[in-house]
Specification:
The chain is of the alpha/beta class and about 800 residues long. Helices cover about 40% and strands about 20% of the residues. The longest helix has 24 residues, at about 125-145. The protein starts with a helix and ends with a strand.
Length: about 800
């Protein structure tokens, strides 16, 4: 065979990577691996173990300790004991520890890469060239954040003790994504690796110990799902960071509800891969290879939904099928393969069943005619074309090397199809017209968008999703905030119990004319509206005098308000200058009626005239603050180590429910609503339950301030009952709730349906007059999602 023929056929022979050192390392632990707790490997307290298997052969690789309650308790205790001392270290000292970990990873890169390939089944080229170098990059990058933490995050402190649960698809890289920022910013960690792929985490524990990481700072507890559940439920953990399936993420949201734990969830996806007719077709075909056959398609952000413009669909599929025939599936340690083994037989069975279901629903199946290794769990590169948008293979995450394809005609149809999913993790857009690509990227419901590229990652660029792909970000500055909490909120006390709703005292009538009824209505879609149930409640002064009535909102009123908020989507696309002007106008109109609003606060709450005036003045100032921020809370440009940039773009979340605190009836309302509308959100607000008249008076200010209909909607009534409706509503994208501990628990638990973002106070009192605690970037960060748009450039 000639050299030219080799290049034509790409029929190279195997080039196996040596596994001698990795097998020797495994042999040294033939008796089994213990948990890594407080700087040492220890057996399970129960004595229970389980086997982990090699995906490519099905053979037992190692015996692992199966963590139980006692093991988790010990790990948490060790982390708690170490946390204060670790956090007190100067940032430079923590930076040096992370630098040492990065260098240790680099010195042992080949061993880590081989162990990862054996344990996970992915090709050695991927572990060697992507996973391990990027893991080292994360430790280097976050060593930098540790060094400058005192200046860059001066108003924040570490969260504390963090429980982290990682998946089996990128075991070592996910460890770095989680552990590096947590340690850099002064937290201590208990990591639970996936039961299928725990070996590189245990190898890292050995390396960390050798690098001099203080005892108790990093703890690793191995085990199955129950071990993770014990970690999630532990009362002495301050934060849970989870990467895995949406189903498990939903359970974690429910189980942590009301616990006060910080939570980040990076969950599943069904990411669109959009190809326009002016795209570089061969480049896009290679993009598909990287999008869905990288790591056997076992990637949460895999570009598994191909959306191809009709005019090039036949040509694109022809070239894609031809490229599929050149892919090689083989043993993970063969440096010439493109795909390795599926993680386990149970996952292989699931992939096979979903593909069969897709064919039964009308899809056309094409599988590459290539030889698969004997034994182990292997599956060929697969394309399902002619898929309908509602087919199960178009809506469910397959998590295997299966691409599903459908066509579109116009950019608008492409956007509609791309967003036709309950997920929102990532997307790819392929077009040689940069204006078209960026226009589409801005309209996609995804946390990450790649332009003419796919599956690009870097420690400096935030990664994370929206919708049922979870919330929170990992990487970059935005990822650092996930491991910090505001200093101004440290030491907050439980909110004093609010008195029962004040009752009107009976008053004998006389011959004076009765007052004209002025029952405050709801405010929905820019109009005053009577409550659906036609019930109202009397608002009494502290002395029992009736000072007004408000409508009693119900489920239908919330439904109408959400519909009105959805219809006001143009507000999210308005210019920041326009939103700033309107906020200034609201403040101006409120200022003109300051005495009236102060008198209302005094009448409702019994506050002194001085305190009431101070609250109104603070509310006006707060509106000015968010008017100022509206055109200044901007994104950034990340410069990852490639020829290109990543744009970090803050976007409005969408429709946000707000349950206002019982205290500070005007200032509390404005402190929550103003940052949301400044960022482009539309709001359904439930005012202070005992003192709602400030908010119902305020809608007359909105009516005269050019606020578009539906941007702010006000529904009065029971805070807890209306919160239940908002939390369960699938068209509400986020919910802020300030009030009782019961309210926070209810909101977090019921929000698990569509995994909406929540912002609650867990029954802790906020000093609304304190600008550090109640104003600024602290609230704006929670009012936006950050979308990172990757734009490679050059030939």
């Amino acid at each position: 065979m000639t050299v030219a023929k080799y290049f034509d056929e790409m029929s190279y022979g195997p080039a196996p990577e040596s596994d001698i050192e990795a097998r020797d390392w495994l042999a040294r632990h033939a008796s089994g691996f213990g948990h890594f707790i407080n700087g040492a490997f220890v057996p399970s307290a129960s004595g229970k173990n389980f086997d982990t298997f090699e995906p490519a052969t099905g053979k037992v690789l190692a015996k692992l300790a199966n963590g139980g309650a006692a093991d988790v308790d010990n790990a948490v205790a060790a982390a708690r004991k170490a946390q204060a001392s670790w956090a007190r270290l100067p940032g430079h000292a923590r930076a040096r520890h992370l630098y040492a970990l990065a260098r240790m990873i680099q010195r042992h890169a080949r061993l880590i890469a081989v162990v990862e390939a054996i344990d996970n089944g992915k090709p050695i080229r991927e572990t060697r060239d992507l996973d391990v170098p990027l893991a080292a990059r994360h430790f280097y990058h976050h060593a930098g954040w540790a060094q400058i933490q005192d200046t860059e995050f001066a108003d924040h402190v570490p969260v504390g003790v963090v429980g982290q649960i990682i998946p089996w698809n990128f075991p070592f890289l996910m460890l770095a994504w989680k552990v590096a920022p947590a340690l850099a910013l002064g937290n201590t960690v208990i990591l639970k690796p996936a039961e299928f792929t725990s070996l590189t985490a245990l190898l890292f524990a050995e390396l960390a110990s050798a690098a001099g990481l203080p005892t108790g700072v990093l703890n690793i507890v191995t085990g199955e799902g129950e071990t993770g559940a014990l970690l999630v439920g532990h009362q002495d953990i301050d934060k849970i960071a989870f990467t895995g399936s949406t189903e498990v993420g939903r359970v974690i949201r429910e189980r942590t509800a009301g616990s006060g734990k910080s939570l980040t969830l990076e969950l599943g996806g069904k990411s669109p891969f959009v190809v326009f007719d002016d795209a570089d077709i061969d480049g896009a075909v290679e993009g598909v290879v990287d999008a869905i056959w990288f790591n056997q398609g076992q990637v949460c952000c895999a570009g598994s939904r191909l959306l191809v413009q009709e005019g090039i669909a036949d040509l694109f599929h022809e070239r894609l099928k031809r490229r599929m025939e050149t892919l090689r599936v083989g043993q993970p340690l063969d440096k010439c393969i493109d795909m390795g083994a599926i993680i386990a037989p149970v996952q292989l069975t699931r992939i096979e069943a979903l593909v069969k279901k897709g064919v039964s629903e009308g899809a056309t199946l094409h599988q590459a005619k290539i030889d698969l290794p004997k034994g182990g769990s292997f599956y060929p590169p697969t394309l399902l074309s002619g898929v309908q948008p509602t087919s199960i293979v178009a809506t469910e995450e397959i998590f295997g090397p299966v691409a599903v394809s459908m066509t579109f005609r116009t950019p608008e149809e492409a956007i509609q199809l791309a967003n036709h999913t309950r997920y929102g993790l990532a997307a790819s857009v392929w077009s040689e017209t940069i204006g078209l690509a960026l226009n589409v990227a801005a309209k996609l419901a995804a946390g990450v968008v790649w332009v003419n590229a796919t599956n690009l990652f870097d420690a400096a660029v935030g990664f994370g999703g929206k919708r049922e792909s979870g919330f929170g970000r990992e990487g970059g500055r935005e990822g650092c905030y996930e491991y910090l909490k505001p200093k101004a909120w440290v030491g907050r006390k439980a909110r004093a119990a609010m008195p029962a709703l004040l009752q009107v005292k009976p008053v004998a009538g006389d011959f004076a004319l009765p007052t004209i009824d002025r029952t405050a209505k709801l405010f929905i879609g820019g109009k005053q509206a009577r409550p659906d149930g036609n019930y109202s409640r009397v608002i009494a002064s502290p002395k029992g005098k009736a000072i007004g009535e408000v409508g009693e909102g119900n489920r239908k009123d919330i439904r109408n308000a959400v519909v009105a908020a959805q219809a006001a989507s143009a507000w999210s696309n308005a210019t920041t200058h326009n939103r700033a002007q309107i906020l200034y106008y609201i403040a101006e109109n409120l200022s003109g009626r300051a005495d009236e609003f102060a008198a209302r606060i005094t009448a409702m709450t019994g506050a002194s005239a001085a305190n009431a005036n101070a609250e109104v003045d603070a509310a006006i100032s707060r509106l000015f603050t968010y008017a100022a921020w509206a055109d200044k809370y901007e994104g950034g440009i990340h410069q990852p180590p490639l020829r290109g940039v990543a744009l970090a773009m803050p976007e409005a979340i969408g429709v946000v429910g707000v349950i206002c605190p019982p205290e500070a009836p005007l200032l509390g309302f404005i402190s929550l609503v103003a940052p949301l509308i400044a960022a482009g959100n539309r709001v359904v607000a439930v005012p202070s339950e005992p003192f709602p008249l400030s908010a119902t008076d305020f809608y007359s200010v909105l009516e005269t301030s050019d606020v578009p209909a539906g941007v702010v909607n006000i529904v009065t009534g029971s805070a807890i009952e209306l919160a239940k409706i908002l939390a369960a509503h699938n068209d509400v994208d986020a919910l802020w709730a300030f009030g009782s501990a019961e309210l926070s628990t209810t909101v977090e638990k019921l929000s698990s349906g569509n995994l909406k973002r929540t912002f609650v106070d867990n029954g802790k009192a906020t000093d609304w007059m304190d600008r550090a605690a109640a104003e600024g970037a602290l609230y704006l960060r929670r009012a936006v999602d950050v979308k990172n748009i990757w734009i490679p450039y050059g030939e």
